[in-house]
Amino acid sequence: MHREPTTSNNVLATFFTRQPIFATDYTVWGYELVFSTETGRELDELLPPAPTDAGARFTATSLCEAGKTVLIDFRQNALSAMPPGKTVIVIPDQPMNDDLEMVFTLLKRRGYAVAIDTDESFLPQETSVRLADFVLIDTIACDARRIEAIREHCQNGSQLVARHVQDRQHLAEVRAAGCVLFSGPFFAVPENLDRRELTSHESSRFQLLEIIERAEEDFDELSAAIRNDAALSYRLLTYLNSAAFSFPERINSIKQAVVILGWKQLSHWLRIIVFTDLNPDIRTEELLITALKRAKFFEILARAKKSPDFDPDQIFLLGLFSMLESILEMPMNAIVARLPLSQELRDALLGAPSPHRDWLDMVNCYELAGWERLESIVAGLGFDFATITNAYNAALAWADAFTRHSSSA
């Protein structure tokens, strides 16, 4: 039996976001796909074959192929499309009965891992805890004592996954209580916002960004700045000669790159390469992917909107720079002071209410699955939901592809 979507126009049934799940060393262990509505089925319709949203299915299979584990709700899942070895099926919390036990058995026979989704009313002694491979815990609703009680009943090696972890202090608390995997906004919350000095590496990158963002185009200065940075020159030329571009002739010099690409396209790719090279730390990898995804998401939407108020190149920068505070662990006002950005971008990055700030609010809601507020913001910006969904899916694919090409360069 299908449940009716919670929205009147049924559009949000196709919305999904992916949220990273981190191991204790800050590497990304996998992703959970979070859907906008519960359009699923009752458990007595065992292992339904109907396909899920195409974008979600593509995202899930791509992540599995890249070696990441994917958590996906049983009620949204298309089992025929999901590789068993890297897929965890999330079962909603409910009292154990014969039907539920049969679901566990059938899923495990097919090679899937199973997670039980708990809430504040969950009883730690439930049989499902002993059957599940993973136990998902809402760390806002459950304190450390309750987490420890659940852990004590996990007798078959079930791993505790902490959801909604807010910051690094919260992370330390739930980790001490027994959780070994973690999701939530904590990874994007700076641990210590110091007004520190930039390192020499960071300063050289900012100097290059300053050249790129100036109103006047100085090819000689740009070429010299790139040539003086051997690592950046190598990375740029390697990337431009990769399959991502497939130029008819090989690019062998910075001067040749400038001539072939032109200022606008070269500046575009330099922004991305410089940005992803600012802080090459394992803790920032997902932040970089998030920034790239936001930038492309905004650019696609701006091109679709065709409004003089939202230039695609400028709105791309808004998304790209939106994570700098977390990546550099510096106050945003100190960061934007070093860059020749338009007033609209400065205001938006500093949190001032504005049409450009609405774009950042929109993507924040999307990433955190704040579907009701997202619906309101999308309507205010004049987008339709199909455009938003397609742009987000395309941006995810682009950010993942760029990261793969960049890491192999």
Automatic annotation (TrEMBL):
Known PROSITE patterns for this protein?
A: HDOD (PS51833)
At the top level, the lineage of the source is: Bacteria
HDOD domain: residues covered: 198-387
PANTHER family noted in UniProt: CYCLIC DI-GMP PHOSPHODIESTERASE CDGJ, PTHR33525
Q: What is this protein called?
A: EAL and modified HD-GYP domain-containing signal transduction protein
The species is: Desulfobaculum xiamenense
